[in-house]
Amino acid sequence: MVTLYQNKVIDQLRHVLGKKEHMVSITIRMEQIDPLAFFSAGETLFYGQRFYWSDCLHERTFVGLGRAQVIKSNEKTKKRFRDVEREWKQIVEGAFIEGQGPLMFGGFAFDPLKQSDEHWIEFPSAQFVVPTFLLTKQRDEIWLTVNVVHESLNQIEEMIDSLFHTRDESDSHRAHIVKKEEVARDQWLRSVHYATDLIRNDAIEKVVLARKLFLSFSERIDRSHVLHELHEQQPMSYIFAFENGSTCFIGASPEQLVRKNGHMCETACLAGSIRRGHTVKEDEELGRWLLQDDKNRREHAFVVDMIKQAMNEVCTEVVIPNEPTLLKMRHIQHLYTPVQAKVKEGVSIFSLVERLHPTPALGGFPKEKAVQTIREIEPLDRGWYAAPIGWVDANGNGEFAVAIRSALLEDNKAHLFAGCGIVAHSDPHNEYEETNVKFKPMLLALEGEQR
Ligand SMILES: C=C(O[C@H]1C=CC=C(C(=O)O)[C@@H]1O)C(=O)O
């Protein structure tokens, strides 16, 4: 089987390498291969240059290994969205394509104006990569795309050899947690208190404040294993990982930012939360309470109003139900309102992302004031947490999730992030408990390391 793929790829490349276009992109159909196994197989050759994405409906899974092209922006304004769009168009136009074509994966920082801390040093305000190898699983079909810029046939042949010969490293040692620290807990509680004062004084209407949990492990964290745990434990989430040098941003988010397919697009309002119950009865009671609770309905309404307005500006046929329903994840339930619309001619996925980020579910309301308040009073640098992460294909279709329930992994360290929406009657201790529930997906996946 190995030589079959190798031969197919090499045969196809032999005919097209040396074309005058800058990048050659070919795609072949493959037999079944597990995307997580492919991610793991890339460890030897591509550690620090891998990504993983699987959407919440399991419609598409992407694994990227290596870097054929990188788009990067350190731009601190909204221009970063347009810079990425322009560069992506140039790459696609300059490529020789056989098959489905290249795809890029990446994301944006939450707030490039926030003073950055050293942990996020490898994550600029925008970065996307076109991988050398892209494995696509769409429904039950598997495709391998190879994007070549400089490599020779021999190099590609060796890489494929390595990828399809790597064994499953199930005998590897599991790292266990040796230290757990709540970062700036008291400062965060004070910030929540301060934010409620600002809101009561009409300086702002809603702000989302996040905090951090720091974990240190006995040895290097096995990223493939964490992805595996996230898949097992959070099957209804977007599962993502983006490696950049020695660090990896990873998570299991329930929140869609936007999906564009041709003229159609979708987004979702997700805000307002309560834990899951221990019994079916308790769970239903908590859900009913959430649907009727004024504070949570207010938090949710800010998101619906803002998204409605943003979509109406660039879309037609915007469909938004009048009442939220419940979205139940493993540890938490949220108020949820799905949105569908038809995009106006010429509106790209990048402009949708630019318009929507950050929704009041991650920033607050009004948007600019909320982001500025976060910049001033939140005791951490969010980096890529709570920001758009996702993919765009050669036709401009794609999907972005909001990167929450996430962590930044270093070698044997993990920084976990969780936040919650603060409105006038928020109680700092209840909000603190809510962040504990929101840490759970990443915490359990990382603790899975020691099971
Ligand atoms: C900011 C987070 O969640 C947001 C998404 C859903 C519900 C939220 C809430 O109820 O506060 C938050 O707005 C997080 O998980 O870190």
TrEMBL record:
The active site is at residues 206, 255. Coiled coil: none annotated. Residues 185-438 form the Chorismate-utilising enzyme C-terminal domain. Pfam families: Chorismate_bind. Keywords: Isomerase, Magnesium, Menaquinone biosynthesis, Metal-binding. One of its GO terms (biological process) is salicylic acid biosynthetic process. Pathway: Quinol/quinone metabolism; menaquinone biosynthesis; Quinol/quinone metabolism; 1,4-dihydroxy-2-naphthoate biosynthesis; 1,4-dihydroxy-2-naphthoate from chorismate: step 1/7. Its cofactor is Mg(2+). Mg(2+) binds at residues 299, 434. SUPFAM superfamilies: ADC synthase. GO terms for molecular function: isochorismate synthase activity; magnesium ion binding. It is an enzyme of class 5 (isomerase). Its EC number is 5.4.4.2. It catalyses: chorismate = isochorismate. InterPro entries: ADC_synthase, Anth_synth_I-like, Chorismate_C, IsoChor_synthase, MenF. Belongs to the isochorismate synthase family. Catalyzes the conversion of chorismate to isochorismate. This is Isochorismate synthase MenF. It comes from Anoxybacillus flavithermus. The gene is menF.
